[in-house]
Amino acid sequence: MNVLKANRMEAFSDGVLAIIITIMVLEFKVPEGHDWNSLVDLVPKFLSYAVSFVYVGIYWNNHHHLLHTVHSLNGKLMWLNLLLLFSLSLVPFSTAWIGESSFSSTPTALYGIVLLLAAFSYRLLQHEILKQHSSDSDFVVAMGRDFKGKISLLLYLIAIVVAYLNSWVSCFFYVLVAAIWFVPDQRIERVLRNRSS
User: Fold this and answer.
1) pTM of whole model > 0.90?
2) At what angle do helices 186-196 and 43-67 cross, to 10 degrees?
3) Cα(124)–Cα(135) distance, rounded to whole angstroms?
């Protein structure tokens, strides 16, 4: 692997993710009042920010591990990485809208569409990296059938539809997926640990 090139792509990605988090936190406006009640109106914005922060953190963590399995960097891999970053760059907008609307149906559905796009983009990137490894390699075997990845896509689809029935139930699905992925992908960590030992 050309470590220098892979490191540049990882550093660029880290910078984009840091900017995404910065943009999200800048959506908070200082309330006009000066007591605790003044913060009540910010609760929906804070909740949407907190969930989105966790999501960006999850992607940052798993993306970091995934890039350490790259053998060779090529144009397709770089474009798929950019597709993932594009998807994640939409998170601040959907986060702001869902918080501003106090979790109304359409903003909640759009939030799910953005998360679905990000998850699908990540799967495409992961698939391209998997193709660089032999079918019996430790990495490919460790990744297995990717149950968490598949169930996440399904839960996002359900959440998008449910948003028009009950946006809070929809949000429950978003939190559920975040909880599933909260612990970094142990499959990749195990492979990297075995290689270094």
Assistant:
1) no
2) 30
3) 17
Closest of 86, 98, 110 to residue 159, by C-alpha: 110
Instruction: Report how far residue 95's alpha carbon sits from residue 51's, in angstroms, rounded to the nearest whole number.
Output: 9
Residue 113's CB: how many other CB atoms inside 10 A? 16
Structure tokens at 45: 């914005």
CA distance 88 to 104: 21
Record the tokens describing residue 177, joined without a space.
């997926």
Q: Determine the Cα–Cα distance for residues 162 and 156; give it in Å rounded to an integer.
A: 10
In angstroms, the CA 130 to CA 34 distance is: 54
pLDDT, averaged per 10 consecutive residues of the chain (197 residues), comes to: 66 94 88 83 92 96 84 87 97 96 96 98 90 72 77 96 97 96 70 61
